[in-house]
Amino acid sequence: MKMLMFDFRESEGEFFKTRVFKDIEIKFKKESLNEETELTEEELNDTDIISVFINSSLTAEVLTRFKNLRIIATRSTGYNHIDLMYCTKNNIAVFNVEHYGEEAVAQYTTGLLLALIRNLLPAYLGMKQSSQDLSSYEGRTLKELTIGIVGCGAIGSAVAKIANFFGMKILINTYMKNPAVSDFVKYVEMGELLANSDVITLHIPYTPEVYHLISQKEFEKMKQGVFIINTARGELIDIVALYKNLMSGKIKGAALDVLECEYLAIKNENLADEIRDSDDNCIASALITQKLLDMDNVIITPHIAYNTKESVHYLLETTFNNIRDYSKGMHTNQVC
């Protein structure tokens, strides 16, 4: 079988140095797969398997170009970047990877929490510019703060355990209680979490039902000076509303490891300096992202919360196990 692996990163290369896949001929591509991707006729005609990350956009227009595609293996938990309806109609099996990088994401979230609360970014920038203002770097002691965690799966519960170690008060909004943390957290409705949290961090999977879960009406319910952290999915936050509330001071700081429309470059010379009327939400998101990058109280990183050596190896191992199992008639992690 012939496989094209898109969104390939250097960190994934080490995995393949010690593993041989005799039945799969793999071609690695650093670029994402979308309607702009240029491929040869041979690649379009002979490819059996495609592997991607969420940066790719596998629309029907993209997939119809492949003549013998049988398997799509996304190296992610989410799969909303894939047209499942097209895949179902055309007998293309789609696989994802569940439960990878939980500890890594929880630890990274904690790092972002500390960076925000202790003003690490402005302090660092001040040192670089030789213009320190110690009074502006004053932070808070974590045990005096309340953290609101949206979602209590493996990642959310791991964040709760770390927050408990710091002595924080913990509020959790979740559809299912987790007995591993129930002794030291309080389960609350979303409204109570928004109104009483000093820090809000998101740890739920993305589905269309939770698109812009945090929008203007949710920001209005929050405390003055709250911090927002998102290491889940960019689509969970209305970034335009976030920017407005950062500018007004309602939101004191934000840390975003994920962005809506991540396939769109953050810096794009073709984008206007100001938001203009457009039906393209991705354009608006990219324009706002450029503004956020200029704010000292905002941290943006390129979707790396999960990105540890151990997590990447697990992700790749599971991806190829999914393909192997499918060839044996099994349906491990099959989405459709």
Written description of the protein model:
This protein has 336 residues and is α/β, with parallel strands linked by helices. The chain folds into two domains: 2-96 and 309-327, 3-Layer(aba) Sandwich (Rossmann fold); 102-258, Rossmann fold. Helix content is 35%, strand content 15%. It has twelve helices and twelve strands. The strands form two sheets. It has a seven-stranded parallel sheet with strand order 8-7-6-9-10-11-12, sandwiched between helices. Residues 272-279 have low confidence and may be disordered.
Low-confidence parts lasting 5 or more residues at pLDDT below 50? 272-279
**Ends distance:** 20 Å
Strand fraction: 5-15%
Dominant shape:
globular
CATH superfamily heading of the largest domain: NAD(P)-binding Rossmann-like Domain
Work out the helicity level. 25-40%
| Assembly category | single chain
- The count of DSSP E runs of length 2 or more, i.e. the number of strands, is 12
Average pLDDT works out at 92
Elements, N to C (H/E): EHEHEHEHEHHEHEEHEHEHEHEH
Number of contiguous helices: 12
- The total number of structural domains is 2
Rounded to an integer in angstroms, the radius of gyration calculated over CA atoms is 21 Å
How does the helix and strand content classify structurally? alpha/beta
Strand order of the largest sheet: 8-7-6-9-10-11-12
Largest sheet: 7 strands, parallel
CATH topology of the largest domain: Rossmann fold
CATH architecture of the largest domain: 3-Layer(aba) Sandwich
